[in-house]
UniProtKB/TrEMBL annotation:
High-level lineage: Bacteria, Pseudomonadati, Pseudomonadota, Gammaproteobacteria, Pseudomonadales
Keyword tRNA processing among record annotations: no
Keyword Transport recorded: yes
Domain of life of the source: Bacteria
GO cellular component, one term: plasma membrane
Membrane topology, from the record: Multi-pass membrane protein
TM stretches of this protein: 30-52, 58-79, 99-124, 130-155, 167-187, 199-219, 240-259, 279-304, 324-342, 348-368, 389-414
Biological process annotations from GO: amino acid transmembrane transport
Protein name: Probable aromatic amino acid transporter
């Protein structure tokens, strides 16, 4: 058994065709798969983490990022083994239907829908504001300029998403490295600031860290792309999550080290711009646009393929008219809602998102247990000690606590200092 908790067994035939799910096989390279995880996880929210941890400090944030990253990775590996035990190519909702039943399938589907719609609304709004500042246009027109290439790649499918995620993720990493190096070389940067903070505020930071990792949805998509090389799937999952952790850690570390906890702005682009100069403001905002784009593709693509998987009567995802219709269902409502003023609807998504996190923690455990009893195939790899019941209990408790905190926070039931 390797130190990742994964052990090898008999491989899955590479030529297994998709059955009735309507999903087709499009091969992914290892780099493309890793980029899909990084791109989906790294939304523009990474730029608000320094502000969110301004009371607790960087060290508590780092600890919670590590805890959340480890247990989310384990959950993703549960989904990976489940997918590779199944002959047909399914998304999460299809796997849940196969191994947990209709209730589980609908719960997962609604979880995917709620999280995707909520995130896509945020990306529509955020991209519009950034492009409005860059180009001197209205936010709505800025969102439209973001929307057109984002939707086009979703229409082109998994192959285009993988390639797009790869190139833009490489660009994102390059921009972050430039900003981090400039920060390290800046005379105002003090490493000692990373040790400041108050541990009494550690609990709120926990919730931030948990919701920074959202790539469980795309694991079945990766399994489909690795159907000819299934042993690469766990390696891609672990590599992608490690890269995510590094990026999530170095951005707030750089900003806090540069400006201190007391001088944080809600968006790190402002802090970087004020401290490093106008070039840093534009670089960081370009990074934010790229982060929104890659996360849009990851979550939007997962939502689209989950629709095809859930509603088999739609037929194959490769049918142009049907794909365009489903793409409209995925992409148009978030664009409209971003500028509709329906604040109540967005708040409802917040509550639903808290519950969807719980669903996403429980369902992979149930699916894995059922797949080991009723799966179609002996997989090319399987989870080892990471599938121990004690670890599964911890995963569920983490997400339950996160959901409870989110609800209490929204209802103003927490101490005012939090």
């Amino acid at each position: 058994m390797s130190d990742t908790g994964v052990q090898s067994v008999q491989g899955r035939p590479a030529a297994e065709a998709a059955e009735s799910s309507g999903l087709e096989v499009k091969r992914l390279s290892f780099v493309e798969a890793v980029a899909m995880i990084v791109g989906t996880n790294i939304g523009a929210g990474v730029l608000s983490m320094a502000y969110a941890s301004r009371k607790a400090g960087f060290v508590p944030l780092l600890i919670w990022l590590a805890v959340a990253g480890v247990f989310t990775t384990i959950s993703m590996l549960y989904v990976s083994e489940t997918a590779l035990r199944t002959r047909a190519h399914h998304q999460l909702s299809g796997l849940a239907q196969r191994y947990v039943g209709s209730f589980g399938s609908w719960a997962i589907f609604l979880s995917v829908a709620v999280n995707s719609i909520g995130a896509l609304i945020a990306y529509m709004s955020g991209s519009g504001k950034i492009l409005a500042a860059f180009l001197g246009i209205s936010p709505a027109l800025g969102s439209l300029l973001f929307f057109l290439p984002a939707a086009l790649v979703l229409y082109l499918g998994l192959g285009a998403i993988g390639k797009g995620e790869k190139f833009i993720s490489i660009g994102m990493v390059s921009m972050i490295l430039i900003l981090v190096i400039a920060t390290l070389l800046n005379e105002n940067t003090e490493v000692a600031r990373l040790l400041e903070g108050d541990w009494i505020y550690m609990v709120p930071v926990f919730n931030i860290a948990v919701f920074c990792f959202s790539a469980q949805y795309i694991v079945p998509e990766m399994a489909r792309g690795f159907s000819d090389q299934p042993t690469r799937l766990p390696k891609a999952v672990i590599t992608g999550m490690l890269a995510t952790f590094v990026l999530l850690a170095i951005v707030p570390a750089s900003v806090i080290g540069l400006t201190g906890l007391e001088n944080q702005s809600e968006v790190a682009t402002l802090a970087w711009g004020q401290a490093l100069g106008q070039w840093a403001f534009y670089t960081a905002n370009t990074f934010a646009l790229c982060a929104m784009m890659t996360s849009y593709w990851g979550l939007g693509g997962s939502f689209l393929t989950n629709i095809f998987d859930k509603f088999h009567r739609l037929g194959s995802e490769s049918q142009p008219k049907t794909r365009l219709m489903v793409l409209g269902l995925v992409c148009v409502p978030p664009f409209v809602l971003a500028y509709s003023g329906m604040v109540g609807f967005v708040n409802a998504l917040y509550f639903a998102g808290a519950f969807s996190g719980v669903i996403l923690s429980i369902m992979p455990i149930l699916m894995l247990r059922s797949a080991r009893k009723h799966g179609d195939l002996q997989p090319a790899w399987q989870c080892g000690w990471i599938a121990h019941p004690a670890i599964q209990v911890v995963i569920v408790l983490i997400y339950l606590a996160s959901a409870a905190y989110a609800i209490c926070s929204a209802l103003d039931l927490l101490p005012s200092g939090w």
